[in-house]
Inverse folding.
């Protein structure tokens, strides 16, 4: 059956595509992601960095070139399953929801994106939790974090020792609040923009550059749309605070305190950085995905997929 073919043949290839795409994308844009995290964690009146470029320049001066890649190892390790789950899950749910009618309505596309966003947080939450601690260490100045080489393994052990597995899933609600709307906006938007690149209705293939542009456009729009949720998530997942930086008991408390002390504009901190991170990340991801690297590595061709 078609379901058996998709599961046995295409799913492993889609997982490989998502994993490779995530690793390539993260390597390219990680310094901008680091700047985004540090800008989001800045409080009004305690600004160390003026903008993204100022943050990157100061990071290189104080921490060296590799300081821009602080936390990259954990991200590269976990982005493979994260992107694999996100992209493959969306494909799976789109396939499942289109079985009866043979086509997808916008509502079904959004539902597929929603399901994909819910699936990915299993990996996204601990990945973001660990990454943020490492990325934000340099911003905190001369604290204990500056005098010891804190690794993701050390942070994980400490969290498991003090708070158990739930410690790694701090900010889960905020992560869901960010990733579900992102996927709901991104995947339908990408699908429709990508479809515009088809020159002939009977020829489904699209030029690789159009896949890249479609991923960039849809990714940047979705990233800016959910940027306030990303700020809340970053604040909640930052364990170490600077002098006079408040703590938050949850999503509602975080939103309330940010509004009262920093104003609505604080929810857009790092929005441009996030757009610059997500746009090429998903552009690269979609190129790898649609070129079919996974299918090539597994030796699949249109013929043996159909005859599986």
């Amino acid at each position: 059956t078609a379901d058996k073919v998709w599961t046995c043949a295409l799913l492993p290839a889609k997982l490989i595509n998502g994993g490779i795409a995530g690793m390539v994308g993260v390597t390219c844009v990680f310094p901008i992601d680091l700047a985004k995290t540090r800008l989001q964690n800045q409080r009004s009146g305690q600004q160390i960095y003026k903008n993204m470029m100022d943050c990157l320049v100061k990071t290189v001066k104080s921490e060296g070139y590799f300081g821009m890649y602080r936390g990259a190892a954990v991200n590269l390790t976990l982005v493979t399953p994260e992107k694999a789950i996100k992209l493959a899950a969306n494909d799976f749910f789109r396939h499942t929801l289109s079985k009866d009618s043979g086509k997808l309505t916008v509502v079904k596309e959004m539902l597929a994106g929603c399901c994909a966003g819910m699936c990915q947080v299993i990996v996204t939450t601990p990945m973001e939790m660990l990454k943020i601690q490492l990325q934000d260490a340099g911003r905190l100045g001369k604290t204990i974090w500056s005098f010891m080489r804190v690794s993701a393994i050390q942070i994980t052990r400490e969290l498991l020792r003090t708070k158990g597995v739930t410690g790694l899933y701090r900010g889960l609600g905020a992560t869901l609040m960010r990733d579900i709307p992102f996927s709901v906006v991104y995947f339908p938007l990408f699908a429709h923009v990508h479809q515009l690149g088809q020159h002939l209705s009977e020829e489904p293939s699209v030029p690789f550059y159009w896949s890249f542009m479609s991923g960039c456009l849809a990714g940047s729009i979705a990233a800016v749309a959910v940027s306030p949720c990303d700020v809340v998530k970053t604040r909640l997942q930052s364990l170490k605070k600077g002098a006079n930086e408040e703590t938050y008991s949850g999503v509602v408390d975080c939103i309330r305190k940010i509004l009262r002390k920093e104003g609505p504009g604080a929810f857009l901190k790092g929005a441009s950085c996030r757009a610059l991170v997500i746009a090429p990340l998903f552009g690269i991801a979609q190129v790898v995905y649609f070129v079919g690297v996974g299918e090539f590595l597994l030796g699949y061709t249109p013929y043996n997929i159909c005859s599986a």
About this structure: The CA atoms of residues 200 and 206 lie 10 Å apart. The radius of gyration is 20 Å.
